[in-house]
Amino acid sequence: MDIGTITFGTLLSDPYTGHRVSQAERLDEVVRAAVLAERLGFSWFTVGEHHFGERDVISAPPVVLAAIAARTSTITLATGTTLVANRDPVLVAEDYATLDLLSHGRLQLIAGASFFPDPYTVFAQPPESKADRKRENLELLLRLWSEEEPEVTWEGAFRPPLDAVRVQPRLHQDRPPIWVSGGSRPESVHLAVESALPMVFGTTARPPETHAPMFRLYRELWERAGRPAEQARTGAASHVFVADTTAEAREQWREYYGNYFRGAKLPAGARPFAFDFDDLVGPGSAICGSPAEVVDKLGRLHDLWGHDLHLLSIDIGGIPHGKVARAMELVAAEVIPQVAGLGADRPTGGTVGGRPSAPSALAAAAAEPVGGKA
Questions:
Q1: Which of 8, 52, 165, 326 could form a disulfide with 48 if both were Cys (CB 3.0 to 4.6 A apart)?
Q2: Distance in angstroms (rounded) separating the CA atoms of residues 314 and 325
Q3: From CA 175, how far away is CA 99, in angstroms rounded?
């Protein structure tokens, strides 16, 4: 299993000192963290995209990743996520092809849609069109990046038509480096499989067991489509903190994690979140503890989900860069070597972590309403 890190450039005051870095300092910390991640042996450095909020400072991932590309040479540079539902896919194709060239083929683009209402308001996009926009824009992006069809003539519902358009520059990589994000509802899972793309599931907000049916659904649909099992790749993400001991990790992180949730802007229609630190880091979605405890929880999540990639969100809640760097060093030294072999012999389609899975997810998913968050 590959281990990466993911950041949104969270910009909050330190709850202990009240100090808040500037936007420029925060972006500099993100770039420094990427350089450190490469040196330590993380597989991915992933940058998220949020708009119009005060908590997160990154709205232009390709700009930030281009700065990182100039200071790194091997680490995968990813987006988590690129808001393809909200952005013009022609501009997405141009911007990220440029990044792929600058990084010499290190781009991985995770394609999604905003959970938050502001982009839909500011960009004059009806929120109810989210799923249709995501599908249409992803399909167009794939065509724009296809060497088999370099000149694209196209007409859809959400942008002006194209007449024999060839976007420039072209990707460095031979195949579009795209993953689909989502998975709280079946529609994104179907989109990923129909597009023959890997998928990163949004696993930070709900209990781990609630995501397992969607992981199984992805593999079952992939198998039914007759595609090679080894290409059915999936990823997940967690809020994470690690220190030398479990007691130290929880003592340090409790206030920072609470600060992160207190600073959150809720998605449209969401109820206020009842923050319970012990529940989140115990049976819940977060991971906090000693390196051994982090290894154990990652292993249990892999048994549950059977995934190939795990992205760790460490720099949240106003936590100082020095503490983030120390946590990354512990992950690199004592966690990554222990989990690297997970999934090396994982069967797909009906098994999870080498053991029989629960009954088929297809029937369960059929009863799920379509049109939720993705």
A1: 8
A2: 9
A3: 15
Burial category of 359 from C-beta neighbours within 10 Å (exposed 0-12, middle 13-18, buried 19 and up): exposed
Count CB atoms within 10 A of the CB of residue 273: 12
Measured CA to CA in angstroms, residue 257 lies from 12, 18, 115, 218, 239 at distances of 11, 15, 20, 31, 9
- 133-156 pLDDT, tens digit per residue, is 999 999 999 999 998 878 999 999
Q: Dihedral of CA 57/63/65/66: which sign?
A: negative
Peptide bond preceding 17 in cis form (omega within 30 of 0): no
pTM for this model (two decimals) = 0.90
CB contact set of 119 (below 8 Å; sequence gap of 6+): 51, 52, 83, 86, 125
Span 87-113, pLDDT tens digits: 999 999 999 999 999 999 999 999 999
Query: In the block, which residue shows the tokens 């936590």?
Result: 319
Q: How far apart, in Å, do the first and last CA atoms of the chain sit?
A: 24
pLDDT, position 149: 78
Q: Is 191 exposed, middle or buried (0-12, 13-18, 19+ CB in 10 A)?
A: buried
CB atoms within 10 A of CB 33: 21
Q: Which two tokens stand for residue 140?
A: 């167009």
Q: What is the pLDDT of residues 251-278, one digit of tens each?
A: 999 999 999 988 766 555 555 567 899 9
